[in-house]
Amino acid sequence: MLELQRIRNEKEAVLEGLKKRNIDATATITKLLEVDQEWRLSKAELEGISAELNQIAKEIGDLFKQGKQEEANAAKSKTADLKEKESTLKTKVDGLDAEMTQLLYQLPNVPNELVPAGKNELDNITVLEVGSKRIYDFEAVPHWDLAKKYDLIDFELGVKITGAGFPIYKGKGAKLQRALIAFFLEEAEKAGYEEFIPPLVVNEASGYGTGQLPDKEGQMYYVNEDDLYLIPTAEVPLTNIYRDVILPSEDFSIKMTGYTPCFRREAGSYGKDVRGLNRLHQFDKVEIVRIEHPSNSEKALEEMIDHVKGLLEKLGLHYRILRLCGGDTGFASAMTYDFEVYSAAQEKWLEVSSVSRFDTFQSTRLKLRFKTADKKTQLCHTLNGSALALPRIVASLLENHQTPEGVIVPEALRKYTGFDIIN
RNA sequence: GGAGAGAUGGCAGAGCGGUUGAAUGCACCGGUCUUGAAAACCGGCGUACCGAGAGGUAUCGGGGGUUCGAAUCCCUCUCUCUCCGCCA
Predict the structure, then answer these.
(1) pTM of the model
(2) pLDDT tens, A196-251?
(3) Residue A46 CA to B62 C1' — how many Å?
(4) CA pair distance A247, A375, nearest whole angstrom
(5) Which of chain A's termini has less CB crowding within 10 Å, N or C?
(6) Please, which positions of strand B sit below 7 A from a protein CB?
(7) Looking at residues A15-41, what average pLDDT do you find?
(8) Residue A223 Cβ < 7 Å to strand B
(9) Inter-residue contact A241 to A270 (CB < 8 Å)
């Protein structure tokens, strides 16, 4: 959620920034400022009346103490009118307040100055490409066929047990999952991230905290009986650890990591994009989350990017990094870098990681703050990234490391898998 | 699932319907003392919003009610704890 203060003070800059998302927020913001203006006036009036009532109540108390019953009772009669006004104004102020919140929820984050304007993925900027497309001297096979050939993943069996999008990993396929998770966690630990194992279901407040609610309500699985949501990413429980927290000093840098399964309804997906491991309802992911002083979030983002680069390089994957354009940047994000690995077999780039800085967009909702040296409270910045999500990494590994003899396991992974080839 | 108890400031823990935004202790910050530290003593110490400021308002789990006045009374929801049952 954008800070109201910022919209008041930098209206033009906010509008200009949102244009990069192809959003003309003029109407919303004009309305918002109107409501805000009225809210402030009404609130001032309300508080004046409350003050008056408080004053009278105090006087009545004193009169009773002095035994002046009659005067006290006389004073009581003065309040009826004020109470009536107070009640009306209270309703009005609450209504305006709710209206502002509603309007604020509609506004996405303002993109960072580096974010290019643009509509969709075509406008993203490739900032780096490492490696080159592999040339095959045989027909490259897509991962879903490889998974079948080597009996690694059974998609049909998953349909039987649960439904489409819930694959069953078996044998070396299962072990590869476990190896990747261990590898990613250990790399994160080496980079200074503390490991957490959070709950896989969260309450409503947590959903609002990181911005999944109310924007993406339909994307999460919902447990009606207990009013809980299955997490779509470890970002939700990990970041919410710091909901309603005021860090005691401005000297902090919180680095968390966690492996969790992730659950996404993916309503609206269809066709080729969902083939094989490309899009699942349940998948595994190691997430990295950071909570930073505003002055450090730029550096933190760089570090996270370097971390993900390191992972992909250790896995021997050819990849590129995109700086997403305004239109492709997520609702809550101020700037997002996507990592994509090229799949020759599918003849397309697969998104394997997304690293974002949210600035104060999440911490506004989370009420995540820190104390400055002069004892003021100030909002923290939050960031997060996948490091990494498994399915498309598995797809990439299978497709890019395939040989006629089998799939070669990257060196870095072997100590976790215990085997060096899948055949 | 059944029965009971409870929810107050960073923590612990008082609180009669009327200067209680809230005693007290601990923690924390500043100071005095000390060569330094500890101890002792003095002072400070929640959050949010409105306001240029003075100041005002709200907040004792959430919501509603009674009252001139609610942390204190009533209703309701949520959560926590204890015991019993069930179970990994």
Answers:
(1) 0.92
(2) 999 999 988 899 889 888 777 788 998 887 888 999 999 999 999 999 888 888 88
(3) 23
(4) 11
(5) C
(6) 18-19, 47-51, 56-58, 68-69, 79
(7) 95
(8) no
(9) no
